[in-house]
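ok so for the tutorial part 2 we go from a plain amino acid sequence to predicted structure tokens. step 1 is just haveing the sequence, like this:
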Amino acid sequence: MQFTAGGVKELFDFTRKEPKKSKDPQYVKALFKVLHAPPMTYNVNRTTWKMDDIHRVMKDKGLPLSRDNIRKIVRGAGYKYRKA
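step 2 — the prediction. this is what the tokens look like for a chain of 84 residues:
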């Protein structure tokens, strides 16, 4: 499909057309909305968030993020992870 639309040049154009998920405001806003709510809001029977829980909740919301992208967004906002 790319070849018929733009020829060989379009076929081998590896530049990203859309922003990375870790930079996309829609994903960032949704992630912090989840993080600022208690886990019980999303039927997670815990008092603190775990990475697996955040990953699952974002997937359930229709905004799948990899664990690495979740880390990038959180660190990019100036937060750090702490073990309990």
